[in-house]
UniProtKB/TrEMBL annotation:
<keyword id="KW-0238">DNA-binding</keyword>
<dbReference type="GO" id="GO:0003677">
    <property type="term" value="F:DNA binding"/>
</dbReference>
<keyword id="KW-0805">Transcription regulation</keyword>
<keyword id="KW-0804">Transcription</keyword>
<keyword id="KW-0539">Nucleus</keyword>
<protein>
    <submittedName>
        <fullName>B3 domain-containing transcription factor VRN1</fullName>
    </submittedName>
</protein>
<dbReference type="GO" id="GO:0005634">
    <property type="term" value="C:nucleus"/>
</dbReference>
<dbReference type="InterPro" id="IPR015300">
    <property type="entry name" value="DNA-bd_pseudobarrel_sf"/>
</dbReference>
<feature type="domain" description="TF-B3">
    <location>
        <begin position="26"/>
        <end position="122"/>
    </location>
</feature>
<dbReference type="InterPro" id="IPR044837">
    <property type="entry name" value="REM16-like"/>
</dbReference>
<dbReference type="InterPro" id="IPR003340">
    <property type="entry name" value="B3_DNA-bd"/>
</dbReference>
<dbReference type="Pfam" id="PF02362">
    <property type="entry name" value="B3"/>
</dbReference>
Amino acid sequence: MLNPVTESGTDRALQRARAFRSEYPSSTVVMHPSYIRARYLNIGAKFIKKHLLNRSRDNAILRVSDGRTWPVSLGQRGKGVRFQTGWMNFVQDNQLEIGDVCVFVLTNDIKRLIDVVLFRAKLSSKVHLVRERQPKSEDQFKSKN
């Protein structure tokens, strides 16, 4: 269970994530301990299967607002779909923490490009504030106003 401070931060991060709008298909995930420590992330099966997954194993590219990218493998487990190989690199490089919220936005299904918008539960770190700023390029994350 998350501590009260983190829950409050997570609530704020989730509110900001829910206010985010995109013209592209998206899926929102709150980071739980298992997503930070495990080598995989279960993602909305309906989202992936409908928009991205054509075979039992596939690959995608995760991209954050500053343009950095991470290749990840997609795999099915039962009825679920998960980011597998490459997920831990993404977690570590972006310093994801329990309670952070990620919005996964499928911006290019042919290239399998998924933009990841990060909403931090803790706003005390300058690293977190910098990474949460708006993208510089309009075409990097196309949002509806």
